[in-house]
């Protein structure tokens, strides 16, 4: 009995752990505010001048400047007075005196471009001049390099101002082209260098080059094309015609000239033709299968070049999208899966790829919309129809325009605008 009363008495007292939780819940934000107090740019509306204050309202730098804003957050402030520019720290100490430069740019990667007259240079976050003001143009590149131009010639520096590529070697150095490379040119010739200025592809080795994408660049020589990797190594020799500019998932569509005929196939990153370049058209791999077409016959091949869906079984086909491919058999179109099983019967004049679970179809010249179960969410009644966008499609019937949602509910659309399907007017 005594034990029971003691338990009851103990339970009526405040739980110390809960009190601590409440204290932390309400006290920590205030403590954080005290610990992480930040300086604030203030503006005096009576004088139209700017200065610096803290969160308590204490004045750190009086409002004496025409303009002020953080050049580096909570570290440096760019100030302007009488059209002269300078930098101060958040205590008001001068970092760059007013008037030393007639313009100071924003800081990127700890560096800002500055102007003296018509010449450019660079300073670091301490105000030190790391690139002298002697260049006509300067651009900071995100991969920690500085391009400098003088007398229509380009050079390259690192972020300390060290010369990587001297002025005069190239007439132009483009912004980074992926894989930390620059395209360079001189006397009508092009090549590649890396961010340290080392030559990857010598000037003139190729007639044209494209940006690196997914680790590879398309290059051209004497009208034929190939691919190089980021080290400049030729993984596909220049005797192809290329229909796609980049590798996707390790494969690219390529083609070759055969007299008056072009043949297309699929190549991998080792330069192997996984699908021989003998077909009139080949797609990229979708759902692991590439569509192959030739002489009004179609089939699907996998990444090893194996024929998965028999070539010639269908007269027309589209690449797989969302696990289904539109194919034509005996004059009608339907959809199959990668196992060549018919998922949506052959009952349409024309079928389009699936997007977000829906596909436009045409029957007897009229357009509708189906879902992946083959149900017509929009019946084939319309003269024109667009894909769903934010759950609403646009349609046109007998000159009138309509909005239609995914339930098939429609209402008149009085806006005058063209209805397109993937850029093609229906």
Structural class estimated from helices and strands: mainly beta
**What is the 3D form?**
flat
Radius of gyration: 33 Å
The total of beta strands comes to 44
**What is the percentage of strand-forming residues?**
over 45%
Helix content: under 10%
Q: How far apart are the first and last residues' alpha carbons, in Å?
A: 88 Å
Largest sheet, strands/sense/barrel:
7 strands, antiparallel
Please mark out the parts with pLDDT under 50 across 5 or more consecutive residues, or reply none. Answer: 1-14, 19-37, 421-426
What does the average pLDDT come to?
A: 85
Query: Taking strands numbered 1, 2, ... along the chain, how are they ordered across the largest sheet?
Result: 20-21-22-23-24-25-26
Number of helices: 2
Question: What does this entry look like structurally?
Answer:
It is a single chain. With 426 residues, the chain is mainly β. It is 7% helix and 57% strand. The strands form 11 sheets. A 7-stranded antiparallel sheet has the order 20-21-22-23-24-25-26, with no helix packed on it. It has a 4-stranded antiparallel sheet with strand order 4-5-6-7, with no helix packed on it. The radius of gyration is 33 Å and the shape is flat. The relative contact order is 0.03.
